[in-house]
Design a protein that fits this description.
Ubiquitin-like (UB roll); alpha+beta; single chain; 2 domains; 253 residues; elongated; Fumarate Reductase Iron-sulfur Protein, Chain B, domain 2
Length: 253
């Protein structure tokens, strides 16, 4: 007999109509939260809006808030969501007045926090990408067609490896600073800055450019060391630790 799982899902038409809908989904073994959203869209409400792409926790597109925790929907199985250990000391994430949520029997699905909601579970990522571009996360150097153009030792790679894993999913924008300061550059963006500043292949000139971006008032100095970003990152990038490193290793240079 197939188990039935109840869902309580945030709905936002984009024109001021905000409410929550309930759905009951049959759950075969191995079904993810994203699979359940597909089922709801296919069989109950084709207007339900959400983002996805790779379905393998690589692209970061399906980030959303599940049972009040920012998560990747494709990575979370329905069978484990209620028993999985949740990050501690997360801020209260409120999106609207939902009907009584039975935390034991219902899975609550809401969009990512601290971003403008376009429709249902789809948020406006334009500010996220704008701030990302601002830190200039790329190399600037003369092109050389003689291989190898640049080399890097294993120890040099190891220094930035953890930071390279960032998939820019936006879960770290659950940070309380992002909530109260719309101009805050953001944990993911600052972690990417650390990734490039610390790369052995980057030029001193490009280092100085990136440092000038992260030194502004709404960048590294705005971080209040909540470390919520560390606790919700699905790839273990530890953006808060990267920001700490930027503050103590690069801000005075």
């Amino acid at each position: 007999m197939v188990e039935i799982q109840k869902f309580l899902i945030y709905r936002n038409s984009g024109n001021g109509d905000i409410h929550y809908d309930r759905f009951e989904v049959p759950v075969p073994k191995g079904m993810s939260i994203l699979d359940a959203l597909f089922y709801i869209q296919d069989y109950f409400d084709s207007s339900l809006a959400f983002r996805y792409a790779c379905r393998g926790a690589i692209c970061g597109s399906c980030g959303m808030t599940i049972d009040k925790v920012p998560l990747l929907a494709c990575r979370i199985q329905i069978s484990t969501i209620k028993t999985a250990k949740k990050p501690i000391n997360l801020p209260e994430l409120k999106f609207g007045d939902h009907p009584d949520w039975n935390q034991e029997t219902e899975i609550l699905i809401e969009p990512l926090p601290n971003m403008t909601i376009l429709k249902d579970l789809v948020v406006d990522m334009k500010p996220f990408w704008s701030f990302y571009k601002e830190i200039e996360p790329f190399f600037s150097r003369e092109w050389n067609d003689t291989a190898p153009e640049s080399t890097q030792s294993q120890s040099q790679m190891k220094k930035i490896e953890q930071l390279v894993y960032c998939i820019l999913c936006g879960l770290c924008w659950a940070c309380p600073v992002s909530n109260k300061n719309p101009n805050y550059l953001g944990p993911a963006q600052l972690a990417k800055a650390e990734r490039f500043i610390s790369d052995s292949r980057i030029s001193k000139e490009k280092q100085k450019i990136i440092v000038s971006h992260i030194a502004r008032e709404d960048a590294v100095p705005a971080c209040e060391k909540y470390f919520v970003c560390n606790r919700v990152c699905p790839k273990g990038v530890m953006p808060g630790t990267a920001i700490k490193n930027l503050r103590y290793e690069w801000m005075d240079k």
